[in-house]
Amino acid sequence: MGHSMGWSSILIPGSGEPNFDTWVANPFETSKQRREKEIHTLLDKLPPETIMLDPSKIGTVRPYKKREKPTKEEMEAEKEAAVEAVKDIALKKKTKGRNKTSKRVMKRKVLIDKAKKPFIEKEMQEAGKLAGKRKLGEETELPASLKRFVRKKAAV
Fold first, then answer.
1. CA 131 to each of CA 5, 76, 101, 117: distance values in angstroms, whole numbers, following the listed order
2. Which of the residues 25, 29, 66, 92 could staple to 33 if both were Cys, CB 3.0 to 4.6 A apart?
3. Contact between 108 and 84 (Cβ < 8 Å)
């Protein structure tokens, strides 16, 4: 610093390096990083002898377990159980005009339909899979109006 008597050096705290101290916790860390850091610190505290992996499991592949499809009767029973569970739900008493019989019936019908929806979607997927299993070489006859959009095979 220069002044009328010459120059002198002074020390100003915080005017040094613009980077924050790396030994201090990261002020911008996310919750995932914080969890990861916590795990690392805990593992560093443990002696390496206590951390063990089962050597017979390393390098092995877990066998694929084929799921058995539920039978149609089991699916129907599940669907009926879901519908019965929804039917047993007690609806709230609403204010005047909102508790009409027709509105209660409609609300119950919507709840039943919501309970049936996953089962119906599953049935549709299975039906789609069965219909989608056609032979690759099999060609379907298109109507005349759509034939102009079919790609022509390249002459060999």
1. 97, 22, 43, 21
2. 29
3. no
Cβ(89)–Cβ(111) below 8 Å? yes
pLDDT in tens, 65-79: 777 777 888 888 988
Per-residue pLDDT band at 110 (split at 50, 70, 90): very high
For helices 72-87 and 101-132, angle between their N-to-C axes, nearest 10 degrees: 160
69, 86, 82: which is closest to 123 by C-alpha? Answer: 69
Here the tokens at position 40 are: 């690392």
Mean pLDDT, the chain, rounded, equals 80
pLDDT for the residue 126: 81
Look at the pTM and tell me if it is higher than 0.90: no
Mean pLDDT of 75-99: 85
Calpha distance 123→113 (Å, rounded): 15
Copy the structure tokens of residue 23.
């030994």
Q: How many helices (H) and strands (E) does the chain have?
A: 3, 2
